[in-house]
Amino acid sequence: MPSAPSAMLNPHFKDLALLRRGVFYALGIIVFLLIYGTLQERIMTRPYGDQVFNSSIFLVLCNRAVAAICALCAVCWRREPVTNGAPCWQYALVSFSNVCASVCQYEALKYVSFAVQMLGKCFKMMPVMLWGMAIDGKRYSLTDWAVAAAVTAGVMQFLVKGPTGSYRQNLPGEGGPTGRGYLLLLAFLLLDGLTSTLQEKLFKEHRTTKFNQMLYTNIISSLISSVMLIASGQATSSVNFLLHHSDFATDTAVLSASAVASQCFIYSQVQEFGALAFAATMNVRQVSSIIFSYVRFGHYITSSQIVGLVLIFSALFYKCLTSWTVSKSEKQRLVQEPKEAPEDSAERNSARYGLA
């Protein structure tokens, strides 16, 4: 039986262990997504020798194949049913939108900078709120509108006050109009939102587990990617590029592994600490990834663009702070209400953020 002093210290040890896990999850997400983003930019914008790699769909195929293998291992380790928990046609819808979104994300880097790609994900706040009012009759607070306006203004400041084109535009015979990159980012945002909605619908209608959905979504995504790769006529050239550039093969392997590892950390964080902690972590991730990109690849940035970045992330962090304050004040009320199981909550939150 534990001694009285030991029993008194237990709460402290539990809080300390919780803090350590929280920091561990956050660092895991930031580090692996930093690696993932850096390699995205390296592969899609920098030459290997005197050649540049062109096939976005090949990278998507590699990512999904590695994710499918890891999901199968997770399903077996957790002794979950290997059979599909939802109709395959519904998994196929998720897979198709997910593959198309990923292709648009990679392709955009041929025309716009990595920083623009990252900031494009912030730009959707205002349109989402307007659609929410028009379709669902939602109401938003003055703080929500102020944050959305600040983020939108910051993104616009960044886009119009300095260079936003891809490094690839500096290479002979490469690159293209920046506007094409903006259109690809718009397509990515629409398809990514559709993917998240379809994933959440799967959880609600069929209560599939996270890893079961990851397994079948990534298996079908691999099949779709393979068909698209063959149909594009890029299969042979992509394999030849892989065989003749060992550094590209290494980058592709690490890219795929870091994508899967980040998903595992995200799932653990959302399950144990909730969506708010994840949102704050992703804000830090965006800041660190953009800064690292400018330092690592030597991009030029104007003072006006720096002001835009400060405005964007100040607004986002303020939003997280106010949300945390509201969450803390309502905690007592929430713990007295019936809640869904932690596993279900984590799966639905992860689906909402498009993590499969």
UniProtKB/TrEMBL annotation:
Q: Which UniProt keywords apply?
A: Membrane, Transmembrane, Transmembrane helix, Transport
Query: Which cell locations does it reside in?
Result: Membrane
Q: How does it sit in the membrane?
A: Multi-pass membrane protein
Q: Where does the chain cross the membrane?
A: 18-37, 57-77, 215-235, 297-318
Can you quote a single GO CC term? Answer: endoplasmic reticulum membrane
GO terms assigned for molecular function:
3'-phosphoadenosine 5'-phosphosulfate transmembrane transporter activity
Q: What's the name of the protein?
A: Solute carrier family 35 member B1
What is the first-listed, main subcellular location in coarse terms?
Answer: membrane
Annotated Basic and acidic residues bias: 335-350
User: In which organism is this protein found?
Assistant: Effrenium voratum
Q: Where is this region: Disordered?
A: 335-356
Supply the InterPro entries for this chain.
EmrE-like (IPR037185), SCL35B1-4/HUT1 (IPR013657)
